[in-house]
Amino acid sequence: MHNIYSNVLLPHNYLAEEILIGSIIINPNLLIYAIQNLDTEYLLIESHQIIYRYLIRLDTQKSINPVNITYALKKTKSLRKIGGIKKITALIKQGQIFNISNNIDFYIQQILKIIQNNYYRRLIVQYGYDIINLANNSEFSSQFVYIKALKYLNYIDSQVSNKNIDNLKDLIGDFLKNIIQVNKHILINNKLLYSGFKDLDILTNGLPKGDLIVIAGRPAMGKTSFVMNIAYHLLKYFQAQICIFSLEMTKIQILHKLISIGSGISVQDLISNQIHKYQWSSIQIVCQELLSAKIYINDNSNITTDEIGHISKTIQESNISTNTIIIDYLQLINEKTINSESRSQELSYITRKLKILAQNLKIPILILSQLNRSIDKRINKQPLLSDLKESGCISIKLFTQNIRSNNVHINTIIDNKIIMSMIYISSIKNNYQKYFSNNYIKNIYTLNHYTFRLIINQIFSIYITDNHKCLTITNWIRENQLIRCMKILQNNNTSTNTIEKTYIEKISFSNYNIVYKYRFCNFICNSIILHNSIEQDADIVMMLYKDISEVDKESIENNQIIDIIISKNRNGPVGIIKLYFNPENTSFSSISRCI
Predict the structure, then answer these.
(1) CATH code reported for the domain at 14-159
(2) Are 393 and 464 a contacting pair, CB within 8 Å?
(3) pTM, two decimal places
């Protein structure tokens, strides 16, 4: 007879599991020890897992006994699955081994440790096997495999470490260490960080901890120089610990910028080593400041969010804390582990992970970003929030409704340059009002995009892009997350603007054609309520803009006026800050504030 298993069984102790389950059936008071130390997956045998779940369920009713457990299993048709009444009887027999002992509590604790240790060993085997498979796969980099292995080990460590067995000596030692460390560094950790630009800090309340701050702009607007000015201010006046991930510039280029900002010496002079004697003292002062500063620069141009998170956490664990992370820039981050349908989805995934990292580390993360190319096609080049990420679009075939609830074809709007305001739905219920906002349309832009057709109740149909949103009975949902038969809200009666619940009959791919992008939030299209929200995880969005038409040639050659447009501020007002930019030493300085 051949052996049933071709491989060695995973670590387990069948007898210990039987004794534990049987002892609890006989003496329900022992269940408290198991609940505190044992999850269901700690048991390897499926029948033992099922019975253990039912024991926990019956314990809430204080009705654990052999009859009730048998009845509960039979009622849910699980009795045969676990082996019938014979299995219950066998467990009770095993449970009687320690039942007569005065030290039964001690024995149960030892049995729990045996079961726990076997579970930990199974985890090590499972994750070890996963690590071997990853290491043998040439598609994954060694850095990725290393981070995955570290995550597995950290998870096992979190499972194995038992806080309940700490003795008083360890607790007192940790308590005193914590007090000393907190008193020593409380000022650094609790101090609110500021950018160094007073008018900007008034609007944003500095650089709030846990916030993801996006700094965007077209090429050559000075995004990197602007964030390096903030970094230098944090290093000089706050002694902050900064971690810079530069995916575009090298470490030496970052160093040149910091020295140039601090000393006022031209970057070109630093690169070409054309430094005069009187400038040496300034360079020495700045270099001395940088030597005493805690600044870490990583110029790996092919980094992922997992690697950014791992490096940041490692630095924070090895030192007191990391105060700020700077990433230059978003579009160069490469996620190798996700298969997104579009780069837009991938960037959304990246920003979400960075937002979570900022919250976990309780620090601000400043990330630079490029703007969409559609801005170059506009006459007015001033960036909008929607330029940071594509918003939803609708097809040329559709009708929209104006403020008087009249259907207007999109071509009519374009040809006659009609300015539309949002549709206010007077009979909307209070629980839906929160989903609407009072934004107004100012412009409509055309572009080419893939569209999808949604058929509603066999009557209505709309053609929208995959990232456009429809209002369901609970919230706004993107087209690529909608499914057949999902209920959405519809404005069937144009005279009374009443909302009705309807359902999606079919979703299909339409074509690649001209679509129109609206610059406002809520509107009705072919009786379907749509939304044009910008899904971003950023708490603050700053956009750099330079209007050359308003600046004379002399100011361009010397100091340029740069608008810092705060397009989004989750916890404060938006506005525009004007700064002087000196392209020679890449320094920014304040002028005034206008909102």
Answers:
(1) 1.10.860.10
(2) yes
(3) 0.53
